[in-house]
């Protein structure tokens, strides 16, 4: 003991090093530990298993040993062991050895470590149903007998049959006779079993209760405080939480007993609790046996509550009255306690009137019928965003609207019950509801929201826009799943929603209005993808990139064919399906071919919606089924498919004999409002089929019909009082009739009539001008076209207001997702692009000028160009930044300006100089504005803009004479005007997209960019490249208007590319021209240079500056022009990053910057002020001075810069400047030290 006492026990404050030291000393001493762990499982391996006599046995140990003795497996007849004792000993010896798996040959652990002792469960008590059925004399139960008197006296439930009433009475009698003894015996038997198993826990609990009974209230509270101070607060809180949960569980169990009969509850309440021990047993019985029936469970719950309350009140033997817990309430009373007052009245009414499914209250559903809380919330901050909610028409609702009552179906949502309307997320969830009506309502509501979004109703009001938000949530896939529904109503709603998501109705209407003005051109609406291969993408990934491609991948065309052919949706569903197919066809040429080649799809559409007869249309007053009736959208679909799919689709439609249907439609009338629309679409389809030489003989066959309709136009159609549709129909008819030569005299007569009437029309509309333009295009000669209308001021009065380029409108980029491109005819806030307004005259004037130019009608052209309204229009175009250049609808105005340029060039010198100059500047802007699919117009404009007349030879000679370029004047002459147009034509890329420009804004410098790219790719320059450089520099010098609209930074970044094109800048002519061009640019715009802005085609100006530094060191030989250019970015107004690059990483270039100060284009003040504050640059300056990298003799400009900034910094009083001044004073080079210490700044 003395040795053990000498060791120091670890304390709570000992560090880890102290503990390790004590452990090491204890192990070296080889002392026995004070505590020896004993595995109770291994005690069975002892010889007799008896405990040592010197140690006292606890009750827990004795009980465990007694159980271990009973764990021997025995037979049912005796208590002997199954295994022979000798064999048993041998097995034990084997078990002591090392066990190995025979397959894996690895040691195997004994299974008793994991499972413990595996015992067979025995049942000493069995429960039987002691209820003996009543004996009968016969083999069958006795027949029930009812007295009439008893039936009258007894109030019976009308819902229950007489047999059911009698059986329930017999069953209740049996339950009453058996319940009490069964419950008592059950509790008693189970209690004994629990007492045997949990005897130790019961004894402990009994001792606790006895101790509590001997203590008064003050002692109990004292001990309670003592425990609270001793125990961990977390443990106390844990025990309290368990107590609360057990209390809640008992309350929930009481609520579940509402189905127990009143007789059973009364019996259970009469059970008397005689002792705490009995209460505890019953409580354990309730917690451990979950298979107890409803009656026993009720009694046990009551006893549990009594036990809990007894423990809290510290009363050992107290019987609580049964009225403390309301156990007599039946199911209906319990349910009625949670039913609101209004709902109770509803239930009473339902019982009286016998309403179906209203007999059982459902609290979950009743919550939806409660009144809204009366708490009034404050209006949200107008600057803060809140969740948008919509009504069923797709209208955005205010945050709160008192006028919307709760009975309109707009409050049936879980979130924000006070606010009316549904959010997008709730509608998406409702669209997948199991109820058909809910799915349909949600889909139609989503369709209404998307339609109003496309109209611009929610521009800048919702973020993100509903269409973008729904696209991000993959509504396309949701709608595609909805189309697979078996319900026609749901499929129709899904088609409406998909049509609203895909189709822009405004774009379709405006495209129909422009039909015929630009020939047969239609826009392709394909998303711009960086990676064209989308085969590896999943559907939800592809849906975010290309909506139409996703639909085609999901067999959408086959599903549409099935819907139209088998499901037969109503008219609105058919129309939506056809409009969706029209939008898909506008995706691309390939998509149009896929639609037309889908088996039986076109067959179904033509057979059902383009029939040969219109009898059904004439016989029906209200159309409820469009099958067998001509549908305008079906004819338009065929027209669009031919437009995009071209001749293969036209030939396939010809196989369906579709021209016969067209002839029927244009020659028949049903008296309906849509007759004229049907005729218009039929004539448009006929015309495009004729364009692809399909059915050419059909015009001759229908000559009589066409002549009669042309005669009707001559006699009845006056443009003073005609409608828009009538003009569209007449224009479509003339376009078809123009394919027959014998009908052209009739068209000429109509043209003469309408052009004469135009001179007196005060309200000139789109339809009237389109009709005259189509008539003018249809005739071979324009002698019948009267020009007296040129004096009508009303024709030109709306020219400025209908211009897209001068509108200052912007297309919305955040209204629609990028995966679904559209033409965006509606600009911000839903405003229509001006060029398609009802009074727009731009398409008409474009046709007129092109016709006059091709017919060389000089007088008429001059009249138009000199018109005051027209001159004002082109003058504004010259000076104003153009809007909506990339819009599809603006191409009509661009073609008008192209016609103006061509017509002006036709006039030549006869036009006044001011107008000619305006037109030439418009030509320069047009070259970079025309779409990439109009390359012919671009080439023509280049020839006009760089013609011999404009690039005057004498002007160039005079300029070059000043530059001492007499030896190369002839070469510059040729390069400047003869080959200039052909030089730039080679950079016009054919077959581009309509939404891309044919030439960039800086097209003048394209030859320099091309040469720079060749040098980067190590391609040797040819002799003609020098001529290209001379041409570009000469045009830049002589015609500065060519780059007037470009920023000075962009011009500078393009011109300095010449210095990176190998050594071509060392040529004397190139060097002189380049120096002159750069000098002119820098003198005028050096203060506007900003190298931080993004430049097209350039990742960053820093990379370009580094390339200039490296190329200067390797090839420049100190060229003055190159040196001057390199020093531009080193001026003090620019980022110090460029000065650090030049004075640190590329300090070797300083040695060759021998440019004298008088040759600097920028003033020297730009390099000296403001004074430098960057200490790292000051150190670089002083290092270059001290080491002699820069000297006044060979690089005067860098020497002046370094000396000025270093000396001015040394004059400061901060610590670094003082320390640096002290170091300078110690320099061995006294000349540099004196120059720095006694520096006097120059007077600038």
Automatic annotation (TrEMBL):
Residue ranges annotated for the RPAP1 N-terminal domain, each copy included: 203-241
Biased composition (Polar residues): 256-267
Species of origin: Temnothorax longispinosus
Residue ranges annotated for the RPAP1/MINIYO-like TPR repeats domain, each copy included: 1005-1215
Superkingdom field: Eukaryota
Residue span, RPAP1 C-terminal domain: 387-453
One GO-annotated biological process of the protein: transcription by RNA polymerase II
Biased composition (Basic and acidic residues): 309-318
Chief location category: nucleus
InterPro entries, sorted: ARM-type_fold, RPAP1/Rba50, RPAP1_C, RPAP1_N, TPR_RPAP1/MINIYO-like
Protein name (Swiss-Prot/TrEMBL): RNA polymerase II-associated protein 1
Stretches of the chain forming a coiled coil according to its record: none
Record family assignment: Belongs to the RPAP1 family.
UniProt keyword terms in alphabetical order: Nucleus, Transcription
PANTHER family on file: RNA POLYMERASE II-ASSOCIATED PROTEIN 1
Intracellular or extracellular location(s): Nucleus
Annotated spans, Disordered: 24-80, 246-294, 309-337
